[in-house]
Each structure stands twice: as C-alpha cells, then as structure tokens.
Amino acid sequence: MNSGVLARVHAGAVAVLALLTLSATLLVSGLPRAMNGAFDDALSRKLDSVTAREVDLSVRFQPGSGNGLGMRDRSAFEQRDRLVRSELPRPLSAIVRPPGSGTSHMSLRTLAAPVMGAPDKYLDMGWMSDAAQRIEWVGGAPPGPPRASGGMTLVEIGVTQHAVEKMGLALGSEYVVGATKPLRLKVTGVFKAKQPDSAYWTHHPDMLRAAVSVKPGTTSDEFRYTALIADASVSTLADTDRQVVYSWILGLDTAAVSSLRVGELLTALQDYRRDLGLIEPSWGSFRLDSLLGERLTEFRTELATAETILFLVLGGLLLVALGVIVLAAQLLLERMDQALALMRARGGALATVVRTGLAPIALSTVPAALAGYALSYLVPGPATPIVHIAPLLVLLTVLAFSAVMMASAHRTPLHERRGDVVSPKPSPRRITLEILVIGLALGGAYLLRTRGVTTEVSEQGQDPFLLLVPMALTVAAALITLRCYPYPLRLVVRLAARRRPAVPFLGLTRAARAKAFSVLPVLILLPALGVSVFASMMATGLDSTQKLAAWQRVGVPIKLTTELEFSAEAIERVREVAGVQEVLPAQTGIVQLGLGAQRFPVLAVDLAGFARIAEGSPVPLPAQPAGQGIPALVSKELKGVTKLDIGWQTRMTLTPAGELAAMPGFFSSGKFAVVPYDANERAGTRVAPNVLLVKGAANAQALLAATGVATQIQTYDQIYSEIADDPLTSVIRTTLLVATIAMAVYACVAVIVSLVISAADRADALSFLRTLGLSTGQAQRLTVLEVSPLILITALVGLGLGLALPSALGPGVDLSAYAGDVAVGAYEVDLLTPILLAAGLTLVAILGALVHTIITRRRTLGSVLRVGD
Amino acid sequence: MEQTLSELEAQALSEKAAFGGDAHIVCDNLVRIYKTEGVEVVALQGLDLLIDKGELVAIVGASGSGKSTLLNVLSGLDIPTAGVAKVGGMDLLSMTARDRLRYRREVVGFIWQQTARNLLPYLTARENVELPLKLAGRSGRAQRSAYLLELLGVDYCADRKPDQMSGGEQQRVAIAVALANSPTLVLADEPTGELDSETSAEVFDALRKANKELGVTVVIVTHDPLVSEQVDRTIGIRDGRTSSETVRSSGGHAQEYAVLDRVGRLQLPRDFTNALNMERRVRLELESDHIGVWPASPSEETGE
Description:
The complex is a heterodimer.
Chain A: H1 3-9, H2 11-49, H3 52-55, E1 57-61, H4 74-86, H5 90-93, E2 105-110, E3 114-115, E4 118-128, H6 131-134, E5 135-140, E6 147-149, E7 152-160, H7 161-167, E8 174-177, E9 183-193, H8 205-208, E10 211-214, E11 221-229, H9 234-238, E12 244-250, H10 262-277, E13 286-289, H11 292-345, H12 350-376, H13 385-409, H14 428-451, H15 457-460, H16 464-484, H17 486-498, H18 502-512, H19 519-554, E14 558-562, H20 568-575, E15 580-593, E16 599-604, H21 607-613, E17 630-634, E18 644-647, E19 651-659, E20 673-675, H22 679-682, E21 691-696, H23 700-707, E22 711-715, H24 716-724, H25 727-757, H26 759-771, H27 776-809, H28 832-856, H29 861-866
Helix pairs in contact in A: 1-12, 2-11, 2-12, 2-13, 2-25, 10-11, 11-12, 11-13, 11-16, 11-19, 11-25, 12-13, 14-16, 16-19, 16-27, 17-18, 18-27, 19-24, 19-25, 19-27, 19-28, 20-23, 25-28, 27-28
Chain B: H1 5-13, E1 25-36, E2 39-51, E3 56-61, H2 67-74, E4 82-87, E5 90-91, H3 97-106, E6 108-111, H4 115-118, H5 125-135, H6 141-151, H7 167-179, E7 185-189, H8 197-214, E8 217-222, E9 233-238, E10 241-248, E11 254-258, H9 270-275, E12 282-286, E13 291-295, H10 298-302
Parallel strand pairs in B: 3-8, 3-9, 6-7, 7-8
Antiparallel strand pairs in B: 1-2, 1-4, 4-5, 9-10, 10-11, 12-13
C-alpha cells in the first residue's frame, strides 16, 4: 500500500507526531546550544569584568644580580616575544591576541629606585613597546636618547600630570636615582593616556598615577611613580645592576575562550608555566604572571552547579518529550491498526506490514526532526555532541518503539485476543524488572546522598550514572504509583458501592481497574510534574538567594555615599525628597590600627535605626552593644583584643563588645569594626556623616541633587538587577522556565492524546451504559471520575517527588555560586509555585477529559453500538 | 475366531485409508483452547469436518458455538491446539510462519461480516482488490481486478470508495478481494449479517458464481438457519462439535442429518430430546434398516 495514502488518511495524527517531534528536537538540540552559548558568554563577561592585568598572560623575566638579558633595543624584545609565544600550548595560542593588538605589548620597568635626597620618593623608569599609540604629549617634549652628564648617564623621562602634582616632578627638573650605579633623570615632557580607562592601562597604573602609601612605622606618606623613557634609553638599563623586570604581555581574547575548553586551558596554563621555566639559563627565568587560572577555576565551580541543574532538567525534558512522542506514535499506530491487520491477514509479510506502518511515522518524524535540528542552528551557541545526538536519539526511539509495537501486534495475523475472559495479571518478568528499576533507583539515590552529584565535577566531569539517578527515581515513583494506586481507590470504591448513586461507583471502579488510562501517560506526567516542580523550586530558590545577596551587598533600600561630608541641611533636603520615608546618617572611614601601617574600615551607625531602614531585609542585623567608652562590634580578624587603639579623625580606643561576621551593605570579610554613630563625638571630635541610609523609593537624580555634594548612590533594586543579570544566572533561569513550560505543555498533550487513544473504548462503554439509562450528565461525570483519580494521584506523587529531588541531590544543588559571592545557606522553599503548577496541570487534564466527553456525546448510540458487534 | 500373531502384524502393517481421503478440507478431532492467565475456554472440542473441493458449504451455529474459531483456524489466522486440520493437503498445525503466509496468499481468501473490516475506507474498490495482489507481488493486477469486479457485477464501482457503495456492493467487492489471488478456498464469516434479505441474495449469488465459475470451495459461517436454502450443504455446530448436516438435493429438497463421528458418537437435536423428555440415558434398538432410540422408561430411570 502506498504509505503516502496512509499518511494522508491519518493526517491529523501524523501532524501531531510531526509537531511534537519538531518541538522536541528543537528543544533538545537547541537548549544545550543556547546553554553552552550562554556559558561562553558568561565566561567572556566574567573575564571582561576583571582587569586585563589579572587575566592577560604576562610573561616576566627578572634577571639575577649582575646579569641581564642583553635587551638593548626593540628587536631584542620582539625576538623574545616570538620565543615566549612559540612555547604557548595550542589551546592558549588560540585565545591570545597577536603582538600589537588588544592589550598585547612588551614593557620593562625598574624596581624601587629611591630618589637621592628625597627618602619618601621612589622614581622608577618604564618603557612600553606601544607607548606612541597609547599616549599623547601635553607639555614639554618627548624624552630623547640618553647622554652623559656630570659623570653620569642622563636619561630623559616623561611623566603624567598626576605625578607632577603629587611628587612635584616639574618639567626640566632633574633627579638622581639608584643606590649603586646611579642615573640622572630629567623630566622633559608631560603626557596623558589617550584612553586612561581602557583595559590596557591596568598593566601600568603606576605610569598614570603616583601611588601614595603610609610609610611603615611612621605616620608619614611615601610616593612612588614610574616614568616613561624613550626607546633609545632601553639599552642604558640593559647592562646595569639595576633591578629590572621585563614583561611580554600576551593579551587575552576573552571572546575566544570557550566554556567547553576550560579544563584544557587550565592544563595548558600549567604546562606553559612549566615550559617557560625551562627556557633560559639558571640565573633567571621566565615566569607566568596571570590569574587566568584562578578565574577559570572559579568559573568552573559555578559552571558545575549550573550544568548539574540544567542537565537534570534537560534530561527530564528529554524523557518527557520522548514519552509524549512515543504516545503520539501510539496514537498513529492505533489509527493504522485496522489497515495493517487487514494487510497482514490478506497475505502481507510481517516485514511488509511493519515497513508500511513505519513509513507514515518516518514520513512525519524524519523531516520534523531534521527541521528541528536545522532550526536549532538559529540558536546561537556551539554545537556539542549532545546537539547532534539528542535529535537522533528522539528519532531512533520513536521509530524503534513503533517498529517493535507493530511487530509484536502483527506477529500473528489474528490479534483478537480473548481479553474479555479474564483481567490480565502482571507477568513475573515484568514485576522482576520493575523491582530491579526501583532497587537501582534507590541504590543510586543512596550513592547520590553519600557522594553528591557534583563531587569533583570540575576535575572529572559529571558522573553520568549519578545524573541518571533522578530520572530513575522518577521512573521508580511512576512504577510504584501504577502498581499501588488501585488499592486506596478500591477502598473508596467499597464506600461508593454502599451509596445510592451509581456514577461514583462505576467511575471509580473503572478507574481502579486501570483500563482507562495506560501506563505511558503516567510515565510522562510524573517526570513532567516532578522535574517542573524541581525546576520551579530551583528558580524561586535562585531568586530568593539573589535577593538575599542583594540585601547583603547594599544593606538598605538606598545608600548615598560621599567622599566629603553630608551637611545637616543636605540631610534635611534628602529627607524631603518625594518617596523618602526615613533617612539615617552614618559615617565610614579607613582607620589606622595603632601606629602601624595596618588600616581597616570602620562604620559608625545607629544599628537600631539601620534595622528600621532595612525593614524587610532577610539579612539578620546585630544589636548595638552597650557599654562604657566606644563599644565596637569587630570582625573575626580583630577579635581577641581587649582594646583597639585607632586613629580616625582623632586617636580613640574601641572596646570590642562582640563579633560580627559581616555588616550588610558595608563589610563582608577581612578586618572591620562597627561603632556607635557618635563614636567620634565620644572621642572628642565631631561626627562628619558621609553615608546616608534611606528608606523608601525615591528618584535617584532627585536624591543626588538634594545632597549638594559629589555623591554616589547605590540602591537595592540596582544591585539586585546587577546580580540577577549575571549571564550564568539568566541562562539557568531561562532554561528552567523554558523547560517548565515545555513540560507542562507536554503533560497536557500526554493527557489529551491518551484520552483520544482510549476514546473508542470509552465511547463504547458509555454508550452501553446509556442504553441502560445513563444520562448525558452522568456520562460526563463518569468519565471525569474515571480519569481524574490517576491524574490526581500522579500529580500528588509528582509534586512530592519534585519537592524531594533537591534534598535527594544533596550538595549537588549549591546555589551560592550565583549569589554574587555572598555565602548562602539553605534557601527558602517556596511551596506556592510548585503547588499551583501541579494543581493547574491537574485541572487542565481533568478539563480535557470533560471536553472530551462533551464531544463524544455527539455520536449517536446506534452508530457506536453497531461498530464491532 | 482367534487371530494368529502374524495375522495381527499384517493387520497393523496394512495401510488404512486416511480419514477424509482426498477431501479439500479435513478436520479430525480438532481442538482449540484459549488460555489466558490460567483460565481455559474450549472453543472447539474435537470437531470433525470434511468438505470436498468445489463445494458450497454453510456452517451454522448459535453464538459461541465455535464456528468463528473454526473459520479462523481454516483461514490460517489461528493455530489449533490439537487434532488435524488440513486444507488441500496442507497441514495447518505444522506450518511454519512462512508456509502460513504463503497459505494466506495462495490458498485461502476470506470475507468478514463487517464491511468496514474487509475494505480499507480510503482505497477505491479496484485498489482494494489489487492490495492482496500487490502484497503477493503478482503482476497483471489491473486485468485481474477488472475481471473479478466484472464477474461479480460491481465493475461500475471500480473507482468508488467504500463509503460511496451500498452494503451489498461493498460485500461483493470484498468477495472480489478474497478471490484476488485465485485461492482454492474462500471463507466467509457472516457475509450477509449486516444486509437485508434482498441484498443478501445478491451476495449469495456472487458467492455461488465464484463457486461455480471459478471452481472455488466456499465455506460460509452464519447463524442464520435459512442459509441452508442457498447452499449445497449446511453443517451445524454445537458446543464446539459438528452436530448436524442438511443436504440439499438436486431437486431443491433439503434433508437434515445428524452427524455420526468416527467413534460412533451422535448428537441428537435438542428439540427431539426435549420433546420426548430424554435425559441422561436412552434405549437403542438395532432394527434391520435403522436404529431405534427410545427414552428410558421411569422404572429404568430410577434403575429399578
């Protein structure tokens, strides 16, 4: 028979199958693509968010005393550049920019050259291979070649305006630097960076600004600056005993770093570090100075959690999608059954019959799968093996299932079994298989609890067996549900039998006989509900975690900070801005510990007022300590001292009165202290508030205008959206949402398709009952009562499973990686969303059953009863 | 007279004529038991049946008497549990799957009661007739289907789909489908069950035509006792056994016979036994030309 005819005749079922295959293949090959694309995006954004200095590969060489590399000119630098690049392992060479592009360049600088006669000043010399492109001269002239002057070599230098102001390096002034072979330096020009904010300058901040720090053991400051020298002066530094560091900066092309190759890159970094050490003789060696490895390791930790969650959800989605497609294939098979049975009876060989039946299925699934696969190419992201394998898996499963079903149904030509004689009992083989699946699932769950799904994932990758455990648990729960659900129902049936109305008794009896609903819909509904409940819990858990992190970071709804001081009038003006409910002034400062170089931050605030402003924040706040003097809450690092002598606006002594792990909005780690707002007053000076904590929702511009001084504003909303916009977070959130919606839709489709499959049987039974006097309304109630118990029980089990999955996964679902570096404990479980989800799905399924009975009512009794009699 | 050992040996070795001889259909002590999860339903309980080549036979019986099971066995769709079932010399019990397929393609054709089961609703009459030819990989399909449709008087329906034909036309096309592969045996399961008497006659005419003109053996299963008027021989089935035969003489007169099986068992018609209140035991008397059957007298009943 022409397969096209069969496909055309059953166009509806073919279309449903094609649509489901298309959507499933698009989902299962598109979502991993989008996920990996987003992971890549997240990685490059993460690498972009840190300074180029951290992630660029800086190869440094510091010759030992009395030696040099003989780097007299640019070509020597270039030769070494080629050398260090030639040693790059392949994965690394693919992600560094070529010489002269991006931040790739070469440089040298001297180390800590004291200025003779000025003990608080250090003036170093620096050279950059691409200085000409990076700076412009704003005063004087660019430095020229070195020359002899007064028995010393005179090197001309260029400085920035900042250095001129901080260190008094006026044009034309000369300095003698260096203790052993001193050099005379002359300031000939003042320059400025063309793009001072570009990533490039993170490599040479010391050339843009003079650094000011406290001289150890004193209260006075010292200044350091690195001045620019000309190309010609490089040779002057080559053969001196001066401490010089040569650098070859291999700029990182962040967009080229793939999240899939993080492991490879980490190995390559290790190899490169080792290989660099072997290049030069023993009196000095090249070393790699880069935090790329650390950043990649951090990312890998975050990625492991994301992958675990998403693989689980995608695995569930794949399972559900496969189930629904198989169900749709079953629908088509049921529709074609008569034709195939006739073919077989009329002399069709089994292979011919299977081929004929398979053709319409292939005709609908193959193009649909190809189209879904092709459409997935529209989704940005790299194509991992799963992208190619998943559609193939979907296709092979549906074709294999259909072929096996047809072969077993038409193996013997007459497939009219005497099903009316006895109700079938489960075969021992099937029971054994089910017990095996349940046993495996429970064993796997035990392993999962003890080992955790993300144990050493970053090194060893996901454990496929443990990843399968949640799916196995779902299937086990489905099997137990199918086996056990008639028992409670039979109790209800007994009760219903004693009552007068016949409909509940008949409906529940049919439900308890489990003939109304096949196994497949339960196997679909349960994972769909379980995984979507799990997904929604993850999503809400992520959300609450991020809210917590945002509160942790900003502390209050709005925080205004200035480097100067907020006057009483300014505070009053802020208080009057529309939307402001309350304003609390506070003061922060960096204080000196004792008389040493150690400094730490201090916050002076009224903690009771802080708690009022931060109302609604989930972060707990400490109570203000009471006591004599200036009682302070201190961090762990400052604990154990009875008195803290500090220098703030004046010298004062703090009395530690308690320990504080973190102060929301201000400090999260390291040394810090929180003191009463009037600490400075108690110490004998006045309070100079430089922080305003604002409660309410006011316009940021209005607030800034009201302060009247240069002010920075930080709001909870802004911080929250920053955290929530984290690329890895949004990919998790989007994937969870898409998966949840898809699974909800699949679950509804499963219910409806299975209703359609069992429609003929049900219509017969109902028509028979109607001849016995069953009214239309009773018939509808009967169908609903017949279908809903299993849906209800499945929904409840699915809900329970979804709620239990996170604890079954144990440490595998650690969301703290997504909470903006804030440590997060157990997240809050939001029960409302999953319950609504389960209830909604159940309602839709039952409504589907109701609509179905209303449609079947249209069939006349005569036509129904004639068929098959 | 006592037999010698050599005489007994010679008797054992001598070939006996096989049951049924060269009959087209031979069923000997045929048993079919449906077994599902430990519960057994005996559909055929040792049925004997002989049908000669070219006969037009009806098998009648009440619902559940086993006639459809017999038909399924004969059509090669079902395998009997025990006994002998042969069609044209082919043993239906020992056939391999391949033989069974060849049997369905070459030896047997069948017609079900429901017109919907005989014809695919989305194929035309011609396409339906060509389907078995295609499945058997035969050529000359167009001519064969045109010939059969014309023979059965439904050539005007060739391009119509089943829903554009009357019930009688549909069944006649179904007969054409059954005859497509030139089978030697056509089995029909209640072919007129859904038809009125006038249309039924048309269908019987078609079956008779096939029987006479193509020399095909036709077995019709029905629960309609009036069918005996349409066929040469009517075989009654009761409780999974053949119970009676009605043979129509050439003059059109029908004579009903009871079936005597190979071990001498006989089923008395229930009407007869009821009328004479025969139960448990009867008394037989051999006369010169017949056997008399009397109900046991009351004293005999009580065993006095």
